[in-house]
Amino acid sequence: MAIKLVSKSYLIRLAIIIIMLPVFGLNSASAARIKDIASIEGVSGVQVIGYGLVTGLNNTGDNQRSTYTVQSVSNMLKRFGLTIPQTDPRIRNVAAVMITTTIPTFSKPGSKIDVQVSSLGDATSLQGGVLLMAPLSTSTGEIIGMAQGPLSVGGYDFEAMGSRISRNFVTTGRVPNGLILDKEIPGNFVQNQQIKIILRDPDFTTANNVAVAINGSPNMANSASPLDAGTIQVQLPAGQTPAQMIQTIAQIEVLPVTSDPVARVVINERTGTIVIGGNVQLLPAVVAHGGLEIQIQKQVIFAQPAPFTIYKNWPMAGTATINAEEQVNPATPLNVAGMPPTVQEIANALNTLKVKPRDLISIFQALKEAGALQGELIIQ
Predict the structure, then answer these.
(1) How far apart are CA 285 and CA 289, in angstroms?
(2) Tell me: the pLDDT tens digits for 305-356?
(3) Where are the domains of the chain?
């Protein structure tokens, strides 16, 4: 009698693919409102942060090794006239958390803002917890409000008898309308009757198009000028009241502008995700991607010892099996008479070849090296 142990297979996967890509230009320039591609300088919001405690956890909070949690609970209870022993408090229904959010500019006292809560210690879940009143402050240390309320984690994590079922992350959560502002968040967006428009994706062509669109609107002739690839300065009409300035800015925000994004192919190697921009151009190219699959299996055989006999070292033998398979996918040229192919048509052609995302990554990298991919290749 023999005992067979099969080791892990080693796979080498490749695929033979031939792709013929004709010269076609893709033009996906489209009109968008200025407010959709840019923002006004001085109204970006304020980030705030705070430290607090989440209670009501079902034995999933920080353990006694998280000394800052024990200290925080002790300090909090002292405010209520209670003193707890410092030795082995065993507080497992409480977790120390960090609280963050971004407050929109022009928010007034009494405004309610959602906050994000994340575990700071070794709590396993914040599900069902309630955030106790905690102050939030800006980068300068100024306290602008207090946050409190029940958490929504958007998932679950249950474990019993060695089994576990979970969905999403349960060590972070959100408190809807948890922050109540005590102070106003001011905004300074008009200086010397001028505003600055900041593009979210700096581009010289788009900046010039924004300036042309503003100068072509009523009562705004020669008022806008691009300062760089991401900034357009606009001179507001003289003598306007604050209300009239708001009307002028609102008029500028809804102006349609033809943006000209850079042709990009974005590849995420960790997830196998590939996104092809509409302006990407593919020049004539023939891609050959080798397609050989080799599988090596090693079998280790141990000899069964005789009954009632103990061997220090059992005799061992091994065998190996090698299998090789080669598959060839037919070439699928992308030809659309008189019409440039869309990104969807390119994807359909590659899907016809049953190209996997990992193979596409190698193909696009090779196309870029060969100069056939007219665009920027971004690998994340």
Answers:
(1) 13
(2) 555 555 555 555 556 666 656 555 555 454 444 455 555 555 665 665 566 6
(3) 2-7+294-324, 18-27+264-291+328-379, 31-42+191-258, 46-181
The answer to whether the CB of 152 falls within 8 A of the CB of 116 is: no
CA proximity to 169, closest of 114, 132, 121, 127 = 127
Pairing outcome for strands 130-137 and 143-150: antiparallel
CA distance 365 to 289: 12
Q: In degrees rounded to 5, what are phi and psi of residue 164?
A: -145, 140
Altogether, the residues listed in the chain come to a count of 380
Q: Point out which residues pair with 235 in neighbouring strands.
A: 194
Q: Which residues contact 180 (CB under 8 A, 6 or more apart)?
A: 110, 111, 112, 145, 146, 147
CB 292: neighbour CB atoms within 10 A?
Answer: 13
Dmax of the chain from CA atoms? 106
- Model-level pTM? 0.67
Contact (Cβ atoms closer than 8 angstroms) between residue 21 and residue 283: yes
pLDDT in tens, 62-109: 887 778 888 888 888 888 888 877 666 678 899 999 999 999 999 999
| SS3 at position 76 | helix
- What secondary structure, in 3-state letters, does 160-192 show? ECCEEEEECCCCEEEEEEEEEECCCCCCCCCEC
Q: Bridge-partner residues for 191, per DSSP? A: 194
Taking the C-alpha atoms of residue 101 and residue 136, their distance in angstroms, rounded to an integer, is: 9
What top-level class would CATH report for the domain 31-42+191-258? alpha beta
What is the per-residue DSSP string for 315-328? -EEEEEEEEEEE-B
